[in-house]
Amino acid sequence: MKNSAIILTLLYVVLSCGGRKASSTTPATDVVTPEFCADSAYNYIKAQTDFGPRVPNTDAQQNCAAWLMTKLKEFGAETFLQGFETVTFDKTRIRGYNIIGSYNPESPTRIILCSHWDSRPWADNDPDPANWMKPVDAANDGASGVAVILEIARQMQKQTPEIGVDCIFLDAEDWGPGDNYQGEHLESYWGLGTQYWAKNPHKEGYHARYAILLDMVGGKGAAFCREGYSTRFGKTIVDKVWSAAGRLGYGSVFLPVSGGYVTDDHYFINTIARIPAIDIVPYLPNCRESSFGPTWHTTHDNIDNIDKKILEAVGKTLIEVIYNEKP
Ligand code: AHN
Ligand code: ZN
Following CA atoms 220, 277, 157, 68 in sequence, which dihedral angle do they give, to the nearest 10 degrees? Predict the structure, then answer.
């Protein structure tokens, strides 16, 4: 992007999402009400997809990792870069990076906001078999969750929450065996970055009150149901998030019904790290292509199929949860 384009983009974000000040009649002066700018989150998706598919062992992975570290530092977080090596189901040795940004790092009461940031190496659910070996842009399945968390990080720099918050970008979630694979479909082939982090937390003796995973939180037509493992391991957190969404008028995006069990990063946070973790993940039982939505693991998972209104529903709901959490 040319410098002039960058400046125009930034100007647009500033103009479209100016900070809301508390009214002058309230006694606490100059308190900025935490908000969430969906345009800003959208731009963070675009920035990620512009690197190309963030597949492990590629330049795009390296470049995007550096960018994510830069953004977290720019937004005032204490950062950790956790590199690791692992072997995938198809016996590929990959290098991964879990990227962590902490707010209130000394606070003993912490919550985690997390999302995977890697792209699937193959669009193996594409309607056209000619695309099955192409990597996925992963605007929704990867970049959207990261983008919502980055925008929340930007807001947390303006107003620190009462509790500690760790933003965790998990690598190597999506190199799992798809439906076309003939071998063993073990759950443990997914979420490789999370499994590494859960066994080797970035700080010794690390614990958190709970974790919220965002996965595919920007797709057109998305709706989120109360996912099975989330309810099994963290029913009170599911209740908290879904009732916050209802209060804000997002009941048609966060449907108050249960649906599906997804082997996702939160499963390993629950079972290995023993931190209660829930997943905000689409469940569309009537979608022909996939219950995660029509673009899942296809070449159509690109910026054109992102809906800012979904990003906004998720972002504002999380802001509501985070700023109501007491130490
Ligand atoms: C399975 O398909 C077993 N889990 C889905 C996890 C996933 C893939 N989330 C995003 N991409
Ligand atoms: Zn995926």
Answer: -70
